[in-house]
Amino acid sequence: MATKPRTKGYVGSIVYKLKVLNKNMANFIFPQQIELHYMIPSIRKELAIAMKESGLSQREIAEKLMVTDPAVSQYFSEKRATTVEFNDKVKNKIKEAAKNINSNNFQAEMQNLLKMTLQENVTCGVCRDITKASHTCKVCFEK
Known about the structure:
Elements: H1 9-21, H2 31-53, H3 58-65, H4 69-76, H5 88-100, H6 106-119, H7 122-131
Helix pairs in contact: 2-3, 2-5, 2-6, 2-7, 3-4, 5-6
């Protein structure tokens, strides 16, 4: 029987179930799951911080990021999205995006930021931390 993973929550339960189902796929997880459970919340957190620094209220930030006021509060109090560390290049791009986001372009801005986290290997780093995959893994870049 597989041992319980150190990763908590939904993603940890997926890794655990895969270990139980197929020991050969013990560390398999879709990159989209990393994006959904780690990257998107972490990007939103950085966007919220940048928006707060520009003078927006918590409610305005929540509306722009399409989340609840309590979610924004949890970003500020370090109760949500605490796992991912972005490099300066990504942080600067997030700050730029925070100035431009409105209800019509949020999805496009988020997609651009997700692409950048993949190109900068941030997504890969989170995946490696969770799955203990090889540093030579290039699955996300194969066509």
